[in-house]
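Reopening this one. Same input as before:
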Amino acid sequence: MKLLVIDGNSIVNRAFYGIKLLATKNGDYTNAIYGFLNIMLKLKDICNPDAIAVAFDVHAPTFRHRMYDEYKAGRHAMPDELRQQMPVLKEILKNLGISTLEHEGWEADDILGTLAEACRKNGDECFIATGDRDSLQLAHGGVKVLLARTKMGQAVTDVYEENAIAEEYGVTPAELIQVKALQGDSSDNIPGVAGVGAKTALDLIQRFHTLDYIYENLDSLDIKPGVKAKLEKDKDKAYLSLKLGTISTAAPVDLNVESYRLSDGDKQKAVAQFIKLELFSLIPKFNLDPNNVQSAEEIEEKKREITRLTCVDADYLLDRVRGKDVYFYPNMIDGSITDLYFAFDDEIIVMPSETPEYSYFVRNFFADESTKKYSYNTKELHRLACKYGVELKGVCGDLMLSAYLLRPSDNNYDIEHLCMEYGVKIPEFFNTLGESDITVSISAVVKPLFEKLDKQIKDAGETELLTEIELPLSAVLAKMEFAGFEVDKEGIEQFGKMLGERVNELTKSIYESVGYEFNINSPKQLGVALFEDLKLPCKKKTKTGYSTNAEVLEGLVNEHPAISQILEYRSLSKLKSTYCDGLLKVIESDGRIHTRFNQVETRTGRISSLEPNLQNIPIRTELGREMRKFFVAGEGKKLIDVDYSQIELRVLSDLADDETMINAFNSGDDIHAITASQVFNLPLEMVTPQMRSRAKAVNFGIVYGIGAFSLAKDIGVTNKEAKQYIDNYLATYSGVDAYMHRMIEVAKEKGYSETLFKRKRYLPELAASNHMMRAFGERVARNMPIQGTAADIIKIAMVKVDKRLKTESMQSHLILQVHDELIVESPDSEAQRALEIVTEEMENACKMKVRLKADGKIGTTWYDAH
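Same output, byte for byte:
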C-alpha cells in the first residue's frame, strides 16, 4: 500500500502566494484552490499513490501552546482571500474522493508524523508532501518527504530520505530536531539558544549528535567558551525547543491506511464546483465529465447519424435556411474554415468543403440578407467570404464575441469551455460507423448557447456594443487580413544584411574590450565578463547572478566603452532577428504580409495583431523606424496614414468633465504647453521645451495612474519635485482629480469598471486585503474607462471608414490598425479623397464634449505617410 500524506496548510499557502489572485465573476477567490489541486496532481504523478490523506491545521490552541504560551506568537493572520477558499477546497477534496484530516489540539505536522509512523509499522510506503523542512525529521524507515520549494523562480519538488538528508546536512533525520532545538525557529517562535545560529547548531549536532550528550559532557567538549556560555544559560529553552520542534506520532487519527484509499467521491458535485468556480481546466485533469452536471435546460441526449450533403443537396439546404434564423458552426483546420455544420431541431446537416457544390452554396448562403446568421468566430466566416468574392450578410450573433464581452479576462472561448461555463450539455452524435463526432455535437449547442449568452449580454447592457461595434468590426478586420500589406522583400533583405554586418563588427569589438570570446546573449556569461573580469561596479544582483538588463547597462554607459556597444548589439540583433528575418518568413506569394487581428485578447478592448505582430514595428529609434520604409503601397497606389491626436487625454477630459482641459482641446491649443503653464504657474510664452516635456509626461502618466516615484524616474527629477508636479496638475484639472476618486468608488460598488460604450472589466482585486493587489485594482479602475473608451472609438472609426469608402464606391480600403492609427491603401486617383474621408470619419466617430482630432498624410511607404 502506498500512502501520500499532504500537509494541507503548507501546500495551500504555497499555492496562494505563488499564484496571482484569481476570482470568479461573482468575486469568489480561487487561486489557492487552483494551485493546490495542480500541485496535488503533480505529487500523484511523482509517487502514484493508492491512498491520499490531506492534513489541515485547526484554528485553535494545541498542546504546544499549553507548553509555551508564546508558541507561534506574532504570526500573521490568514488573509481573508485565503480563508474563504479553505472550506471550499476541503469540500472539493471530499467530492474527489480524497480524505481530509484535522483534529483540535493537534497540528497537521502531527497528523503527518502519526500516519508516517503507522506506515513504518505496517510496512506500507509513505510519501509526505510539504513545503516545511521541519517534516524532514520524518524521512526515515521507508518514509520519503516530497519537499516543495522554489528554484530560480520555478516550483520544484525534491525527494528526501535518510541518504539525501545525510548528504545535504551531515546528520540523520532525527538529529535535525536537535539542530532546531539549538538554533530555534523564528517562524514558529521557538526560542532555541540565544546567539546560536544555524551554522553553529549544525556543527554541534554533526559532532555530538544530541542535546543530552552535549549537556552531559559540556565541560569536557571542544566548544568555544562563548558558545558554551550561551548553552549553559539557555539549557531550559533548548529542551523546551526540542519538545516544541518534535513532531508527534500520537495524533488521534485513524491508523488504518486502507481508510484513505482513493474513492470515486461525488463526481457530479465535483464538476459542479469546478464550473461554479470557473476552474474549467481542472475538469479534464481529474478525468471528470462536464456532461454529468444536470442543468435545468438540459439537452436530451440522442444518438443520431450525421446527414451529409452530396453535390445535389446544396439547393435543398439553401431552401431550408432561406429567410430563417440559422445557427451553424464553422469547422476550422489549420486556421481555415472547412465544413459548415447546420443545427436544425430534428437533424444536423453538414456542408462538406470537399463537395463541388461548396463554393456555390457559400456564395448564395452568405449573400442572402434575409437569412439571420448566428455562428462562432464570424471574422473567419468573413475571410471565407472574401475568398469567394462575396459579402457575408445578415450576421446577428457571434458566440466568441459575446463570450469575450461577458468575460474579457478569460483566455479560452472554445465552445466546449463555454458549455461548461454556462451550463449547456453537449449531446452525443454518431456517424454511420458508430463513432462519436464531437464537431457535430458542438454544432448542436450553438443555439442553446446563444440563448444563454444573449440574455447575459442584454442584462449587462452590452447589446449595442456587440451589434454596433464588435460584429461589424469582425467584417472589417477580415477584409484587412485578406488584403494584407505589401512589402519590399529585397529592401528587407538588404537592411537585414547591413544589420548583420554591424552586429558582427560589434561582436568583435566587444570581445576585444573584454579580452576573450563569450556568449553575449547569455546574461550569466555577460555578467561575469562585466562585473568580474572588467570589474565594473555591480548595480544589481539576482538569485541567478548579476543583472544585465537594459536599466543596469544604461547606468554603466560612462563606465566602459563596451557597454554602449552591448546595448547597440542587443538592439540591432533584435531588429534583425525579430523584424528582418521574422518578416521575410511570412511574406506570402502575393508579395504581401497578411497579419491576423485578434478581437478577443485584450482586457481593455484593444485589437491585437499576430503572425506577425505589425502593431509592434519599432518607432522609438531612427534605425527601427527604417523598417517602415519596407511597407509600401501597391503599384499605382498610395498609403494614407491617419492618427488620432492625444485621444486618451481627450477621452479623459470628457469622462472627467474637466472644463479647463476640454476648453484647451476645443480651442486647438497645445495641451502640453498649457498644462506646463498651469503647473509651473507661468505665462504660456515663458514655457520652455523642458517644461512642456515634463508636463507631457504628467499628462500621459496620469492616464496610467503614475505615482511620484515613477514620474521622477521618467523625467529625471526628485520625488519631491515629481509629487509637486502631480499635485499642481490635479489642482489645475480638478475635474480629473475628482474623476480618479469617483472611478475607484464606482468600480468598488459595481465590481467592475466600464467604458463610455458599456464595455466592462471586472476587478476582484479591489476587494483584496493585500495592499499591492488593491492598488493594482485602483489603477485599472482609473485607466480602463479611458483606454477602453479610446479603443472603442477607434473601432467605431474603422467601421465607419469601411462603410463610407464602400458607400462612395471607392477602391480604397483599410489594411492596418495600430492602436490610434489607421492605414488605408488607395489608388493614386483616390488618395486625397480617401485622406479626407478617413480623417472626417475618425473625427466624427462619436460625439463628446471634447473635439476629436486626427492628423493624416499620404505617402508611398509607411515611413513617408506617418
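So the earlier flakiness isn't reproducible anymore. For the record, The chain has 37 helices and 24 strands.
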